[in-house]
Amino acid sequence: AQRVTQPEKLLSVFKGAPVELKCNYSYSGSPELFWYVQYSRQRLQLLLRHISRESIKGFTADLNKGETSFHLKKPFAQEEDSAMYYCALRGQGAQKLVFGQGTRLTINP
Amino acid sequence: SQTIHQWPATLVQPVGSPLSLECTVEGTSNPNLYWYRQAAGRGLQLLFYSVGIGQISSEVPQNLSASRPQDRQFILSSKKLLLSDSGFYLCASPGFENTEAFFGQGTRLTVV
């Protein structure tokens, strides 16, 4: 079964400080991992995916198969990063997208 | 790219009243479509998914039902709403390998 765990419901850091949003998953095959973000009054949108190995808005995430983790990181937080962040998993050949509980990130000035 | 239209944006309904939320998709054909619920403090829970017209799978037992009358239309319904049905409902097309998922703007349902 597919399962995604985000242990932190709320995370608050100061502007300029590093940010790490944790995500752990459970899946027996090779998963696709994603981070989605929901800014205030906007729809849920893709932030990044592990396949792309890219940095979006300063965020990066590395898939660690040994630890079954896909933590989201940014070295220097900005106020506009305040949002709800969801880690998501899609299994091999399947289209079912399973989300974690989400982490509400607040960047304090 | 795909666009998911979802309405209404907000809805306040009394307990025991019926519900119908509609979702339509543009920019693709024969999409898989999903309904998620985002309850306060509980993240996104998958409720139903549909792989085609008339095909509905339920992920969790609940007071709601879903229907897929047309290829690009997905409807979430209830005959009698409960207080616990309050939440934020999202329609999504989850994408397939190497593509992203697309989401509607969501409907905030408050049952009073």
Q: How would you describe this protein?
A:
The complex is a heterodimer of chains A (109) and B (112). Chain A is an all-beta fold. Chain A is 0% helix and 44% strand. Chain A has no helices and 11 strands. Chain A has strands spanning 3-5, 10-14, 19-21, 24-26, 32-38, 45-49, 60-61, 72-74, 83-90, 97-99, 103-108. In chain A, strands 2, 5, 6, 9, 10 and 11 form a 6-stranded mixed β-sheet that branches. In chain A, strand 5 and strand 6 (45-49) form a beta hairpin. Chain A is globular. Chain B has 112 residues and is mostly beta strands. Helix content of chain B is 0%, strand content 57%. Chain B has strands at residues 3-7, 10-13, 19-26, 33-39, 43-52, 55-58, 65-70, 73-78, 87-93, 102-103, 107-111. In chain B, the strands form 2 sheets. In chain B, strands 2, 4, 5, 6, 9, 10 and 11 form a 7-stranded mixed β-sheet that branches. In chain B, a hairpin with a 2-residue loop joins strand 5 (43-52) and strand 6. Chain B starts with a strand and ends with a strand. The model of chain B has no long low-confidence stretch (mean pLDDT 88). Classes of the chains: A mainly beta (109), B mainly beta (112). Chain A binds chain B through residues 6, 9, 32, 34, 36, 43-46, 49, 51, 86, 88, 90, 93, 95-102, and chain B through 32, 34, 36, 38, 41-44, 46, 49, 90, 92, 94-98, 100-101, 103-106.
